[in-house]
Amino acid sequence: MSNKSAQATSLLPQNIAALAAYSSAKSEKLTGTTWLNANESPYAKNLELSIEDLNRYPDPQPQLVIDRYAAYTELESENVLMTRGADEGIELLVRTYCEPAKDSIALFLPTYGMYKVTADTHNVAINGLTQALLLDGSVDEIVKAVGSSKLVFICNPNNPTGSLTPLNKVKAIATALAGKALVIVDEAYIEFCPEQSATALINEFNNVVVLRTLSKAFALAGLRTGFTLAQESVLAPIRKVIAPYPVSGVVASIAAQAIAPDAITSMRRQVTILNSLKAKLVDWLNASPAALKILTGEGNFVTLKLANKNSFKVALEQGLVMRAFTLYGEDDWLRISIGSEQELEQVKIWLDGLKTPTAAAPLAGNEVS
């Protein structure tokens, strides 16, 4: 290490110096022709775009987008904060409500990796609990395990397991933690099971926050647009912390079109198709010796335990890119995003070509995204 590099490194806080970079699906630099590794929608959008006013700063919270998303979620506009993806919502909540080197956040593992990375970045401790506790434990057991954690993250449906915490249990947890912690329900995949949304709890509970995104069912992963939904008393401090111009005018224009009433109708049709294709994929996996265990759950993905870890390499050789990662301490898990019918046919070809399971080299473990 050069002297200049050493000097720069010496300036880093200890929590940043020790931080492991988050590994997203796209950061793996894999090559292929069929991409089913990032839970993206297969549907491309045709949108109109005007760039005539880029010499002006944008509206920090574009009113048309806010109003349309409030109508979509059956909330008031004051309950909606637009962010740069749901990831910024996570970061803002930790930065606003947690004191570094003092507070903690509670997670139910395995779950989305950015909760931990964000907390580590801000020197906020992790209270690592389990999905089994969340799903099978009593509310009293969960609250006791949460302890003094300021934020409780419930990814619902959960990535990567697809498991769903019943709405009445989320409500009971929020009731028990009133005045003690914010219960943050990450609903990145809720459009695939909309009847389970916790948005209806927001008017009743001032400690319930819902995170949303346009990256999944709305087919706008490249736009990086999310929403934080909560009572205004919860959002008011966050509005002090958020960047002065978090949403570009171009993003606002596209987002407004994407959540117009006719576009929402189109999104729901696409969700119906994707859920049907997922059911077909699950049938294929159940009939295949390549899958030892299948976590179906909700969302636009299926997670499975491979019988032969070398099967992932075979897929890559065929140009089929899926998400390999370590789960429950085992490095032979694979998550398959639900793509188009043609893309899933490539999965079928891959499955049909696999032989009887044999020992193979381990997969590289990755965080979940």
TrEMBL record:
UniProt-recorded name of the protein: Histidinol-phosphate transaminase
Domain of life: Bacteria
EC class name: transferase
Gene (name only): hisC
Key words of the record: Aminotransferase, Transferase
Taxonomic source organism: Pseudoalteromonas undina
Enzyme Commission code: 2.6.1.9
